[in-house]
């Protein structure tokens, strides 16, 4: 497989990857929107890296690319695994394919419909106001600055997710530390860290126990006490579902709020435009998703049969890694792609992925982003960065893009 081509060596796991990512994407895309690459630390294990918009969109929609690597096993291999009772990692919806994916997604989706998310808006506004009260006091009591990421963006996203899943506020600090460590340590190309995984499973188990005995009006209570047999999950599916929602459901939204704020503060005319017209929060969120989207690369896909993608021959078993971050800045899709511009003519982006695995929480994330920005700008219309913009740093960890800190001066 892949032997007739020589892979390009790309250092995706470098500490400073996010500082250099867009230069790399532009160089690769110029050669081919679907390039054969390998990591320096994984020689001989090439994969297809997708940086072009058209190829990325096609790949995310293609049923010949599976999310579950076990799809590639032959019936004999599957039978052998079953006979040996090998521990089958319980699949999350993200790492499964139809029909399992369809069933798991249907069960979770109800909590994230536009209607449910609209009903949550007043609560999100209340949390945003409360957190800004606290941040205001912290700034006054301290040196006049606050780290907006940790005083506002994370707590706001955690509060919104906590309302949906039903976990207590006392868990917020621990979950925040865990999510930042996981986002830094894990990439779609590395095995999950067993310690972090165990911690996440611990939270999921505790939440299941809490809701088993004290059901309330939240998603986890409904999963633990399903209304019909169709909605019943096995124990391992339940753990996997809650773990996925906790892992995917707030770190990304927090990064969206922080990256949008940083982009606006480094483009003061656009900050002023949003201050004068709150309706611009929606295009600001979409432009941030395109320009500094929190998810840099999708999860690995596996070809289950040969096909062509972006002019390249993909063979059975090949791995394909789509980079929404690269696709969203493809000059054949967006004019002047490296310019942040909330007034641009909107074009579709892949920041929430595409195809059947498109983000189930997209409506919630957009709502948090819009409310987060509008509440912030109404409270602190003259907000400034409390650091030189060149000092802002991205966290390591290739799969997700998030700032390490966002020091601001109200
Ligand atoms: C700005 C915030 C967010 C971004 C950028 C984001 C991005 C994404 C992306 C790119 C995927 C697909 C990955 C792939 O195709 O391999 C995805 C899937 C998913 N996201 Fe999000 N997400 C965000 C917020 C959320 C929230 C708030 C939740 C839930 C509370 C959530 C839950 C999920 C789930 C469950 C999946 C798997 C969907 C499936 O496999 O069918 N996400 N997200």
From TrEMBL:
One Pfam family matching this protein: p450
Concerning PROSITE patterns, the annotation shows: CYTOCHROME_P450
GO terms (molecular function) for this protein are:
heme binding; iron ion binding; monooxygenase activity; oxidoreductase activity, acting on paired donors, with incorporation or reduction of molecular oxygen
Going by the UniProt record, its keywords in alphabetical order are: Heme, Iron, Metal-binding, Monooxygenase, Oxidoreductase
- Cofactor (UniProt): heme
Family classification: Belongs to the cytochrome P450 family.
Name the UniProt record assigns to this protein: Cytochrome P450
